[in-house]
Design brief:
The complex is a heterodimer. Chain A is α+β, with helices and mostly antiparallel strands. Chain A is 34% helix and 14% strand. Among the domains of chain A are: 8-143 and 268-351, Immunoglobulin-like; 148-254, no CATH class; 388-430, no CATH class; 709-791, no CATH class; 800-865, no CATH class. Helix content of chain B is 5%, strand content 44%. In chain B, the strands form ten sheets. In chain B, strands 11-13-23-15-21-18 form a six-stranded mixed sheet, with no helix packed on it. Chain B has a five-stranded mixed sheet with strand order 1-40-41-38-36, with no helix packed on it. Classes of the chains: A alpha+beta, B mainly beta. Chains A and B meet through helix 10, helix 11, helix 12, strand 23 and strand 25 of A and strand 17, strand 31 and strand 32 of B.
Chain lengths: 866, 652
């Protein structure tokens, strides 16, 4: 290992000053030395420093482009492969040149601009390595037409003028409102050109209209004076006089402030892409992003310097205005890229040290491919496979909410069968406990609550659906489109026995089944996402007809073309029905899908069935479902929270999410198949104990993350381990008692039973979409100390301790039994010996055993699934 | 329609001079809560244990039908701890005295299958009713041993009726049975909930196979079944239907299975008696009426009082005759357009549009309806609508999702028609027939949906009604559409029977009711005591004559007298909810109240057994009085205080 540079120190400082950016953990200095000197490295290779990795090769990204139109641009990055397995972005350190400058020229760093039609190459050189990328330029006479949205909206987006914290907020700022990130160009144009103050609840402008541009004196346009701070502006200076963006806006006003240019058709931006969408850098390392806009006419444009960047975790990653990422601390963060009406994201992993020799990790299925590939790219080494004890407990709790009995644990631990895990998974999936547990879980999701008979029919529908392994899309269709007196129809009555408000049902069903939160769009275009009020009320229209008969409690849900009655006047003359009226425009909104497609009149016979069919075939549905299930098994969703898919909350494993969704869809939305797929993966079966390398990982499933047990499951577990079942007495008018031995997960509506434990451990009331955060509180700690659940059960006659003592079991046997029953493992020798000593030292053996069992059920190991 | 009070009474006006308005000694009245077993098989004798309060002086049993006899064998007293709901809504423990009357009961060979009414007779009077079920199947009792777990399930063979009891909250009873491969069985649970005020909730029935699970070899696994659970006879105390479980299962594998009986919410106690009935299931589409449970009244579904607004009432060819029997003809000749109906205006067809019915009414007071017309599919479009001549009954079924059956008929200008619906097999909420009348342009004129404002005035409620009336302004052709309220529910057993007929102004329901609107079915009166009875009368389809009332067949020493009253219970006059009611007149008849005082003279002899007294109504129109209608039968017992005191002394 050696350096090629005789005057390294000097060049280093020069390099720093010249480059001023773009570091790869300090060690890139050697590379800079080489590039500044334009030296061809010898075949012996290039090193970062004397002990650093060696540059093995470089390549250009993209490898080839076709630039269409006059002035078309594209950003190239030079990527270096190093001997430590890490890929580093070394564009600034490389020498770039165009083979034929008459065809294309170099612009900003790595940017190529078309000049005339033809073919040429971009050549990059670094440390003796060379890379080439093909460039063809066509239609170089064809100019891109002006677009208000793209050209002006893009500037407003880049400068943050239309961000949700400024004029893109719900009410705008200072009476001036723009659509968030220029998602509604036509409306933005009106507010700028025609003027007027924005009002949330009406489309009418506030006060007289005064244009925000001045065609006679363009420089005096408010649109320029404010952001250039020539007049007072709460947002400060955003558009300095003389900057390119300022000039562009000024030019637009001077030319008459048109919406589209040159009479040509509007410019369509098909997509915006960022490269890389995923990158790994070291702490203090840097990486340039390249952002490209793709137009409908085939044109590409480098917009790296024309977008707004935002790091979603600045403790991990910082990003500059020109798209240069810098690693701050170890971890993973997403970087959002926003431009007019479009957004993209890049995931950046920041690692401590690159791993030269990454171990081979066995893979069971595509889940492992997706997870382990990313772990490898992020230089994270997964933990070992979980032990049999850890696995049996985890999978039993996850699939059935039930602790494995000691004899089954013994049997499993002692088995030498190679496929014993697969066999166990199948046994669990076919067990009645599976139906019990998932009925409980889906009763939460579908919010089974209300009048006792409704709870019964609704719960029975959930139970039967799971017992028959009904395909999930069918289950959801039955729920969304429910009519009559059937179980799923009760969802439309659980709020005061009348149809829920349109806005509530839209927000809830979209969140539960599509994983997106549209709530904000009820009142205004969503400030942080793409949802608009039009979309929200377009979906609401599908529910407008929902109504019900009221006959004591035997209510029937149906769709009445008139809808549900809403006014409370006297007699027919005042009778009116629920309408689906846009709160701002006051216009009636027809049933409209998210993509703006209005349901044709001929298909409006059964609106909710149409909606259900659309929702369950939409890609969001499968995505949201697999993500929710993933969240159950791993403690966090690939998008987390599991029902919060949005631009600012991108998935950690987008490809895996897509693959899982596709697999779920291809297998008929079979929940058991999905669960089997997940729990069969090595990823799921990894040990929860982290290794030195992955200890800090909370995003990439390098080890299992312990998860707190749900209140009901925990209570059942305590009852099982102590051998003393809980008694549940219903509250309310019927005051029944659940049959002795009933488990908490078998209660149709747990919140209808008086139970202090379940309250303290935050069983949901199901009055809103259930989200169990599993956070520990002080009450729970106190409850462990003094509550009957944790104390009285221990010594109860007929309980586990009582039975063991009557049987004459030895202390060793009892300790072993406790461990097997509660933790699904044998105590290790140290535990065994220590606990035996502890019992022997107590005057009362029974009390000592009670204390021991109390300690076991209060332990974190017991209260979590790990 | 104006309301006039009080309704004309033919009984003598009674002035409340005596001031002897003693309140009913209800707390002393015998009250029965439950019986065990719930019933028996014809040709058998067995012991029945009845639990209730104030039963210390019981000496006899009253049945509503022949074929049943019983004698009192034993009366026991217990003091039991009970939960008492306090004002704050909390419960507190208290003690209460209960009696257990042991009867020896005999069911004749000829006794009708179904529910029979049983009451206990005591020196304090007559008890409330209980239903005793007579089933053709062999009967057994729940084992004396605990059968509360799958491992201790009681073996049974079918066909069988098991009489059991869920003795305490949360109790489950298990029964084990063996089946052959391919056997198809029907399982039902019947209860007496519909008559016992102390019982709440619905029974629950679940079938299992004892296959074990990976976690627990003893675990039983639930079987999926065809669930025909539905409304049973009677109603809950919350005026909602009483649901009884009925499960049908074909067993693909021979072997041992389990049936579990419980309640939906885990209620239980000494009054939770039930019958589990296990019989071979009829083949599919065997024509068995799905709606009928063995707990239906043994003597047909004849209600205590006149009923014309229940989907389960029978609309047969004599229906119109029955209606007409409650009306009165004004003129035999029909001159001046008076076509023999008791109304003076609205319901009268005009001369030019006289219908065949109007003509026929003039000819006779009775009218037998023609045989029902059966729908012929497809009839989902007006062009395929079957034509009806009025009056006519049509029968059909909503067989496939979205099925709409359309019929056409002609109505004259000003013609007042009534539309009545019966659902012979499947009742709401499972089948909710929606009837709409539209004109030739498709404009809806009337439907059987009634709306009113409810709750605290912040919501509309609507319900479907079994009868509606409408007067057509213009002569023309109209279309009757019938469908299920939903667009997707349908089945061969979603059968309907719709009668379209001219309105017949007639006397509707007439009944003695409590202040809560419940029909009074028995009265215990002490000698020297008076009892004020409130009679609620309903005038149907424009009947605006008078309704004269008499109480007949009174025991010796008892008089019924017309009475003045200073207060009128508005609740009894209320039909539907007042606010926002939409076309209330189409769905609810006007009501009037009358007050009758029953006076038992001080010398009135005790009645050893209850005596049936008859409330009789006579329509009066234009000075003409109609024939007497037996509108309600009430069981009356006269008790002698000295006999009660003697009984008390003997008890103490």
């Amino acid at each position: 290992m050696h350096s090629n540079s005789p005057n390294r120190e000097n060049l280093v400082s020069t390099g720093l000053n010249l480059a001023g950016r773009h570091w790869v953990k300090g060690a890139v200095l050697t590379v800079l030395i080489l590039s500044l000197g334009h030296r061809e490295a010898g075949s012996e290779g290039v090193r970062l420093n004397s002990s650093g990795p060696e540059l093995v090769s470089i390549r250009l990204e993209p490898e080839a482009v076709e630039l269409q139109g006059a002035g078309a641009t594209r950003r190239f990055l030079v990527l270096g492969e190093f001997s430590d397995g890490l890929q580093r972005e070394v564009t600034a350190a490389s020498r770039l040149r165009i083979a034929d400058p008459s065809t294309a020229r170099l612009g900003a760093l790595g940017q190529v601009v078309s000049v005339s039609s033809g073919r040429t190459e971009l050549i990059a050189e670094l440390g003796g390595r060379k890379a080439r990328a093909g460039i063809s330029t066509v239609d170089t006479e064809r100019r891109r037409p002006f677009s208000f949205n793209w050209d002006i909206g893009g500037i407003l987006t880049k400068r943050g003028c239309n961000s949700s914290s400024c004029h893109g907020g719900v009410k705008g700022r200072g009476g001036f409102r723009l659509s968030s990130d220029a998602t509604d160009a036509a409306e933005d144009y009106q507010w700028i050109v025609r003027g007027g103050g924005y009002q949330v609840l009406t489309a009418e402008p506030l006060g007289p209209r005064h244009s925000r541009i001045d065609l006679d004196r363009p420089e005096e346009s408010l649109l320029l004076q404010k952001p250039s701070f020539r007049v007072a502006h709460g947002g400060g200076e955003r558009l300095g006089v003389g900057t390119a963006d300022y000039e562009a806006v000024l030019n637009w006003v001077s030319r008459g402030a048109g919406f589209e240019g040159n009479g040509e058709e509007g410019l369509g931006v098909e997509r915006v892409e960022v490269f890389p969408s995923e990158a790994v850098i070291e702490e203090k390392g840097k990486h340039q992003l390249a952002v490209t806009a793709y137009f409908s006419d085939g044109r590409q444009e480098d917009i790296t310097g024309q977008v707004r960047y935002e790091s979603l975790n600045e403790e991990v990653v910082r990003i500059g205005e020109e798209g240069l990422v810098e690693g701050v601390g170890k971890g993973e963060a997403a970087v959002m890229i926003r431009t007019a009406g479009r957004a993209a994201e890049a995931r950046i992993g920041v690692i401590g040290e690159a791993i030269r020799e990454y171990p081979e990790v066995p893979r069971q299925n595509f889940i492992d491919e997706g997870v382990f590939e990313k772990l490898r790219r992020f230089h994270l080494i997964p933990s070992e496979l979980s032990g049999d004890g850890e696995f049996i407990r985890r999978v039993c709790l996850d699939l059935t909410g039930t602790l494995p009995p000691p004899e089954r644990v013994r049997e499993f631990l002692g088995s030498r069968e190679e496929d014993k895990r697969e066999k166990l998974i199948e046994a669990l999936l076919e067990s009645p406990e599976y139906v019990d547990y998932w009925t409980f879980r889906f009763a939460d999701l579908f919010r089974v609550r209300g009048h006792y008979r409704w709870v019964h029919v609704y719960w029975e529908w959930v139970r039967r659906s799971l017992a028959e392994n009904k395909s999930y899309d069918q289950m959801v269709r039955e729920s969304i489109a429910a009519q009559g007196y059937d179980g799923p129809s009760r969802i439309y009555l659980i709020d005061n026995n009348k149809p829920p408000a349109l806005e509530r049902v839209v927000a809830e069903q979209f969140r539960v089944f599509m994983g997106r939160r549209m709530d904000c769009a009820q009142c205004h275009n969503h400030p942080y996402d793409r949802w608009t009020q039009d979309q929200f009320w377009g979906l609401a229209a599908f529910y407008r007809r929902v109504t019900n008969t009221d006959w004591a409690f035997d209510n029937v849900v149906f769709d009445d073309p008139d809808g549900h009655e809403v006014n409370f006047g006297e007699g027919k003359s005042t009778l009116s029905f629920r309408e689906n009226r846009h709160p701002r425009t006051k216009q009636l909104v027809p049933p409209t899908f998210l993509d703006g497609r209005v349901l044709p009149g001929r298909d409006r016979r059964d609106l909710r069935r149409e909606l259900a069919a659309w929702m369950t075939t939409h890609p969001y549905f499968a995505q949201a479902t697999v993500n929710r299930m993933w969240g159950h098994f791993f403690g966090r969703g690939i998008v987390d929270p599991v029902d919060d898919f949005r631009l600012g909350n991108p998935p950690t494993h987008p490809n895996l999410l897509d693959r899982l969704a596709r697999d779920f869809q291809e297998h008929g939305y079979d929940l058991k198949h999905l669960m089997r797929r997940i729990v069969s993966s090595r990823t799921y079966q990894l040990a929860s104990r982290p290794n030195a390398n992955n200890r800090g990982d909370r995003l990439n499933y390098s080890h299992a993350y312990p998860r707190p047990l749900e209140a009901e499951v925990l209570l059942d577990a305590i009852s099982t381990v102590t051998g003393v079942p809980e008694l549940y007495k219903a509250e309310g008018m019927l005051s029944g008692t659940a049959p002795p031995g009933t488990r908490a997960i078998n209660l149709k509506y747990p919140a209808s039973y008086a139970n202090r434990f379940l309250e303290v451990f935050e069983r949901p009331k199901r009055d809103v979409v259930v989200a169990r955060d599993g956070k520990v509180n002080l009450m729970q700690a106190l409850h462990m100390t003094v509550s009957p659940t944790y104390n009285e059960k221990l010594g109860k006659e007929g309980g586990r301790i009582d039975r063991l003592l009557r049987r004459g079991a030895s202390n060793r046997e009892i300790i072993e039994e406790f461990y097997l029953a509660a933790l699904s493992r044998f105590p290790n020798e140290e535990e065994q010996a220590g606990l035996e000593r502890l019992i022997q030292n107590q005057s009362s053996r029974r009390e000592a055993l009670e204390d021991l069992l109390w300690a076991v059920i209060c332990s974190r190991e017991f209260a979590s699934n790990h | 329609m104006r309301l006039r009070l009080p309704t004309f009474l033919v009984v003598t006006l009674f002035l409340a001079a005596s001031g002897n308005w003693v309140s009913a000694k209800e707390k002393a009245d015998p009250q029965v809560n439950s019986l065990f077993p719930l019933g028996g098989q014809p040709g058998t004798s067995f012991e029945v244990r009845i639990r209730g309060e104030n039963l210390g002086s019981v000496y006899g049993v009253w049945f509503d039908s022949d074929g049943l006899a019983a004698e009192v064998r034993k009366i026991e007293k217990t003091v039991e701890e009970v939960d008492v709901v306090q004002q704050a809504g909390t419960t507190a423990k208290d003690t209460k005295e209960f009696h257990h009357v042991v009867l020896k009961l005999h069911v004749d060979d000829e006794a009708a299958v179904g529910a029979h009414t049983l009451r206990l007779v005591s020196r304090h009077g007559l008890s409330n009713p209980l239903s005793l079920l007579v089933n053709p199947e062999p009967q057994i009792h729940e084992s004396e041993q605990s059968i509360n777990s799958p491992s201790s399930a009681q073996p049974i063979e079918f066909p069988v009726v098991v009489n059991g009891r869920l003795g305490r909250p949360g109790e489950l009873d298990y029964y084990a049975f063996e089946v052959a491969e391919g056997e198809r069985l029907r399982f039902e649970v019947l209860t007496s909930t519909f008559t016992a005020a102390t019982v709440a909730g619905d029974p629950q029935l679940i079938l299992y196979e004892p296959t074990g699970s990976w976690f627990d070899p003893q675990r039983i696994k639930r079987l999926e079944v065809r669930d025909e659970t539905g409304p049973g006879p009677g109603t809950h105390r919350w005026a909602t239907s009483h649901f009884l479980p009925r499960l049908i299962r074909r067993f693909d594998r021979k072997g041992r299975y389990l049936a579990e009986v419980g309640t939906l919410e885990g209620q239980g106690g000494p009054d939770y008696s039930y019958q589990l009935r296990v019989v071979p299931a009829p083949a599919r589409n065997s024509g068995v009426n799905r709606r009928r449970f063995p707990g239906e009244p043994a003597h047909g579904s004849s209600p205590v009082v006149w009923q014309e607004r229940d989907f389960s009432r029978r609309i047969d060819r004599d229906h119109l005759s029955r209606l007409w029997s409650r009306a009165i003809r004004v003129s035999e000749s029909g001159q001046g357009g008076k076509t023999a109906v008791g109304a003076k205006d609205a319901a009268r067809p005009q001369e030019s549009n006289r219908t065949p019915l109007a003509e026929s009414i003039n000819r006779s007071n009775t009218l037998r309806l023609p045989s029902p017309t059966r729908e012929e599919e497809p009839n989902d479009w007006a062009s395929r609508a079957t034509e009806l001549s009025i009056p006519m009954t049509v029968e059909g079924a909503i067989q496939h999702p979205g099925d709409v059956d359309i019929f056409r008929f002609k109505a004259g200008s000003g013609q007042a028609l009534a539309f009545e619906i019966e659902t012979p097999e499947t009742l709401p909420p499972f089948f909710s027939p929606h009837l709409v009348i539209v004109d030739g342009t498709g404009t809806e004129l009337v439907s059987n949906i009634y709306r009113e404002v409810a709750g605290v005035g912040d919501d509309w409620i609507k319900s479907i009604k079994a009868k509606t009336v409408y007067t057509f302004e213009q002569a023309g052709e109209y279309f009757l559409q019938i469908r299920d309220l939903t667009t997707r529910r349908a089945a061969p057993h979603f059968r309907y029977r719709v009668l379209v007929r001219p309105q017949v102004p007639h006397v509707g329901e007439v009944a003695v009711k409590t202040g809560r609107g419940e029909v009074v079915d028995h009265i215990n009166l002490r000698s020297g005591e008076t009892r004020k009875l409130t009679v609620v009368t309903e005038s149907e389809e424009g009947f605006d004559g008078e309704i004269a009332l008499t109480l007949e067949n009174l025991p010796t020493g008892v008089q019924a007298l017309a009475a003045a009253t200073t207060t009128v219970n508005p609740r009894l006059l209320q039909t539907g909810n007042g606010r926002g009611a939409m076309h209330k007149e189409r769905f609810f008849p006007p009501r009037q109240l009358a007050t009758i005082v029953l006076l038992a003279g001080r010398d009135a002899p005790a009645t050893p057994m209850p005596q049936r007294i008859q409330l009789t109504a006579r329509p009066i129109v234009d000075g003409k009085i109609g024939k007497a209608l037996a509108v309600q039968e009430i069981l009356l017992m006269i008790c002698r205080p000295e006999m009660e005191q003697a009984t008390e002394a003997a008890r103490n």
